[in-house]
Amino acid sequence: MYTTNGEFQDCQLITSVSSGQFSDETINLYPNPAHGMVRLEVPADWGGSDVAIEIISSSGQMVHSHAATSLPSTWIDLQGLPPGMYLVRIHAQNRTYVRKLVLR
Questions:
Q1: pTM here?
Q2: In this predicted structure, what is the pLDDT of residue 77?
Q3: What is the DSSP letter of 42?
């Protein structure tokens, strides 16, 4: 990186930011690929939190929403949705997480 006076200065590239509370990998969605029912598991300390789940189609439309009440895991019924690739958007702890899901 060059400074305003034209001198070269080393810089570091930040590729991720962590709050230190939990890792994004502690959110599990399975089976994947699925045939209608999927299980979402989130960190145990999310118990008592409001967790909103949205299923987004490949065209960008929200095709299903679900409010998780029994954490740290919940089943989501996606029977009736056509096969394809979906995004599962999870809103919790003032953050949003996204997982890919394939329905067969």
A1: 0.73
A2: 94
A3: -
